[in-house]
C-alpha cells in the first residue's frame, strides 16, 4: 500500500472515512494503540468497509477513534497535505478534498477561489455532503488531460478557500454571539 501519513486527530479520521466512502478504489490503513491495524476499503483487502467505519464514527459515540495511533491513506490516492488528495483513475488525475462547510457554503466560497487557470479550461467540480459525518467531499477533474497536472494545486487552493471561509464564519459567529474573537 502506498502510504501517506495524516495526523490521527478526529477531523483527519472523519475526513479519511468520508473520502473512502466516496471512492471505491481507495484504502485507509488504521493503526491501533495495541499494535494491530485495520484496512478500510471496498476492495478485497478491506477488513472493514467505509460504510462500517462511518457508522462507528458517528457523533453519537466518539469513543472509536480514541485508540487510533495512525492513519494512512493509500490505494489510488496520493496525499498532498491535510485533507487534500490526488487520485489517479483511468490514467487521469483528479483532485479531492474534504471540508467542514456544507455543499452550499462550499460552492459559495469556491466561487471566490483564486485558481491557477485562465477560466478557459473545462473544470468539473462536484461537492457531495456526507451527512453522517457532517463533512463535504469535493472532487474536481479537468475536461482535457493537458491540465491534469494542475489537479492537485487546484484541490489545495479549493480546500484552503473552504478552510478560510470556515474560520471567518466561526469568528463572525463569535462576534455576533458576544464571544471573544
Q: What report would you give on this structure?
A:
With 181 residues, this protein is an alpha+beta fold. It is 30% helix and 31% strand. It has 4 helices and 9 strands. The strands form 2 sheets. Strands 5-6-7-9-8 form a 5-stranded antiparallel beta sheet, sandwiched between helices. The protein has a 4-stranded antiparallel beta sheet with strand order 1-4-2-3, with helices on one face. The N and C termini lie far apart (43 Å). The model is unreliable at 1-7 (pLDDT under 50).
- Helix coverage percent of residues? 25-40%
Radius of gyration: 17 Å
By DSSP, the count of extended strands is 9
Outline, from the CA principal axes? Answer: globular
**Number of continuous helical runs:** 4
- Model regions low in confidence, pLDDT < 50 over at least 5 residues: 1-7
Mean pLDDT, nearest integer?
Answer: 86
Q: Main beta sheet: strand number and arrangement? A: 5 strands, antiparallel
SSE order:
EHEEHEEEEHEEH
**Proportion in β-strands:** 25-35%
